Amino acid sequence: MSIVQVKNLKKHYGQTEVLKDISVEISEKEVVCVIGPSGSGKSTFLRCLNRLEEITSGTILVNGHEMTDNNSDINKFRQEVGMVFQQFNLFPHKTVLQNITLAPIKLKGKSKTEADALGMALLEKVGLKEKANSYPSQLSGGQQQRVAIARALAMEPKIMLFDEPTSALDPEMVGDVLQVMKDLATEGMTMVIVTHEMGFARDVCDRVIFMDGGYIVEEGDPKVLFTNP
Ligand code: ADP
Ligand code: ADP
């Protein structure tokens, strides 16, 4: 069953056509990597999926909800779509645990006790239970990114979007973050990942989408596409 259906998506900034005609369906539990040159529209595509950008035309359905309908409840929709950015964007004056529990308490009405239990379970999952009471500035970039992933998961999303999650990290931190993403894939999380990590794309993703100039120019099984004949 497809969880995301994108039809004839176009996005213009003024006269600039950034996404020209994107149609794609993503199945439940599918892990899709989006690759392509800088400026090809990868990041814009992800932000459209999360409604961080208004789309110019076309339709986006996520989990059956029509996202081009102006009356639709964007906040409710965003709860179904977790997003992780290149920059971790953690709240600097809140602890690691508070970063994770804020949205479940404010947006989902969970009690502090419930949210704390969920937060600790997620911190355990990303290997950072002992950092619960630390502040983001006390963590390495890789640790902060793992907290950002836990924070997104705390909303119990149906799908996770990652926009170059390891591009801002020192090389020695990249593996830990990719491992968390690999674990999520194994658990059956639906994911769309913009990345330059070709090894990860080949080993973990079910499908790779190549973008260029605002179009999807090729897509397929990475094990086939990345194998030299
Ligand atoms: P990628 O993620 O593949 O590097 P982006 O989606 O970031 O590509 O950008 C695609 C194109 O859209 C680029 O030419 C970029 O300059 C342009 N662009 C992105 N955001 C904006 C914006 N807010 N206003 C105008 N142009 C933008
Ligand atoms: P990334 O490399 O992560 O895709 P960019 O550096 O392209 O990010 O863009 C960073 C921010 O600047 C984004 O919010 C994007 O919308 C905005 N942006 C990018 N290109 C332009 C542009 N030509 N005009 C206005 N804003 C832009």
UniProtKB/TrEMBL annotation:
Gene Ontology molecular function terms on file: ABC-type amino acid transporter activity; ATP binding; ATP hydrolysis activity
Any one GO CC term of the record: plasma membrane
PROSITE patterns: ABC_TRANSPORTER_1, ABC_TRANSPORTER_2
Keyword annotations of the record: Amino-acid transport, ATP-binding, Cell membrane, Membrane, Nucleotide-binding, Transport
Stored CDD domains: ABC_HisP_GlnQ
Main location group: membrane
Compartments reported by the entry: Cell membrane
Membrane topology: Peripheral membrane protein
Domain ABC transporter: 4-229
Family per record: Belongs to the ABC transporter superfamily.
Record-given protein name: Amino acid ABC transporter ATP-binding protein (PAAT family)
Species annotation: Ureibacillus acetophenoni
